[in-house]
């Protein structure tokens, strides 16, 4: 699983008017979080995972006591089996729920804009008309027909009942194709289409390296190129036939071995589990509130120390 929560890079084409970077529209872009997970530079990543992108900043403004009170209430909600312990599994379910709700709210915030006739469905025509011909100058230097064709493909893939109208769940898949099996296929095809220059339906090593702008037979390989080559051979090409098929490409793009919610749940437990019993009590979480929810008050001293920066 990927980390959709914070991701609104190229896949937010649906809502963005800016000129997409032509070469960079690779799905990989979408898999990079805009907040890097570096705890030594603050806990923004953890806050967004635990509270959601919308609520995290609000929490940050609360006085310490109120922040702790609300965190306590959240802990009670996370403890679904009511055994007074928060397990990794319970945390992971919570993080997934935060993520799903965020995605849903994001979709809701765009819904009315596109559902022009307010019939509770967004037809492809409705979407297209609203987005591409509402009189806004889309800029002449960029060919939007390609973006539209791409969105057309995604829309059809997301439209499971094939009536060319998206309900809310279908619209979510359209907005976040990287999170759904049936829309991922389009992204895989797209990536293969770009890299598989000889069109044999596979990405071979030569094509892969050329896509990274590393010509074959290059003497002085740039830094990282050898690593990329080894990764291709050792990791990406699972069946060792020298090329990537659809499944291998999909595994490369979507990393089924990496679960964002699982990794984050493990991280939160590891960092707060004072008595090392593998699960958290409310006390352990409250004692580590800074990582879970943060608070202006706790950062107050730090902010004062840094006042010369402002
Ligand atoms: C997500 O939304 C559902 C339905 O509104 C709600 O019951 C649930 O508690 C929410 N999850 C989180 C993590 O806020
Ligand atoms: Ca409609």
Describe this structure in words.
- It comes from Pleuronectes platessa (European plaice).
- Residues 216-247 are annotated as: Disordered.
- This is Reticulocalbin-3.
- Residues 1-18 form the signal peptide.
- Keywords: Calcium, Chaperone, Endoplasmic reticulum, Glycoprotein, Metal-binding, Repeat, Signal.
- This protein is mainly α and 310 residues long.
- Among the domains are: 51-113 and 273-310, Recoverin, domain 1; 117-198, Recoverin, domain 1.
- 55% of the residues lie in helices and 3% in strands.
- It has 16 helices and four strands.
- The protein has helices at 27-31, 44-51, 55-60, 64-78, 88-114, 124-132, 144-158, 168-175, 181-195, 205-211, 225-236, 246-254, 260-272, 282-287, 289-292, 296-305, and strands at 122-123, 165-166, 203-204, 243-244.
- The strands form two sheets. A two-stranded antiparallel sheet has the order 1-2. A two-stranded antiparallel ribbon has the order 3-4.
- It is globular, with a radius of gyration of 23 Å.
- The relative contact order is 0.15.
- The model is unreliable at 1-34 and 296-310 (pLDDT under 50).
- It binds 2-acetamido-2-deoxy-beta-D-glucopyranose and calcium ion.
- Calcium ion binds next to strand 1.
């Amino acid at each position: 699983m990927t980390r959709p929560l914070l991701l609104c890079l190229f896949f937010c084409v649906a809502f963005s008017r800016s000129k997409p970077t032509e070469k960079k529209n690779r799905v990989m872009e979408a898999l990079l979080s805009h907040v890097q997970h570096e705890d030594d530079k603050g806990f923004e990543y953890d806050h967004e995972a635990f509270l959601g992108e919308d609520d995290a900043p609000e929490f940050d403004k609360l006085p310490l006591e109120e922040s702790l009170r609300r965190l306590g209430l959240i802990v009670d909600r996370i403890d679904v089996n009511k055994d007074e312990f928060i397990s990794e599994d319970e945390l992971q379910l919570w993080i997934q729920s935060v993520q799903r709700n965020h995605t849903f709210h994001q979709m809701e915030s765009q819904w009315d804009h596109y559902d022009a006739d307010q019939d509770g469905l967004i037809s492809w025509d409705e979407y297209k008309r609203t987005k591409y011909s509402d009189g806004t100058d889309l800029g002449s230097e960029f060919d939007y027909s390609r973006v539209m064709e791409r969105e057309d493909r995604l829309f059809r893939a997301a439209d499971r009942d094939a009536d060319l109208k998206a309900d809310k769940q279908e619209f979510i898949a359209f907005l976040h194709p990287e999170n759904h099996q049936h829309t991922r296929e389009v992204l895989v095809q797209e990536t293969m289409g770009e890299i598989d220059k000889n069109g044999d339906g596979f990405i071979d090593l030569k094509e892969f390296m050329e896509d990274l702008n590393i010509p074959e037979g290059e003497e002085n390989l740039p830094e990282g190129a050898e690593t990329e080559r080894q990764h291709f051979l050792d990791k990406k090409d699972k069946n060792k036939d020298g090329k990537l098929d659809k499944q291998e490409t999909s595994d490369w793009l979507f990393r089924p071995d990496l679960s964002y919610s699982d990794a984050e749940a493990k991280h939160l437990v590891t960092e707060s589990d004072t008595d090392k019993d593998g699960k958290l009590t409310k006390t352990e979480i409250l004692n580590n509130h800074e990582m879970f929810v943060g608070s202006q008050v706790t950062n107050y001293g730090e902010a004062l120390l840094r006042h010369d920066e402002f």
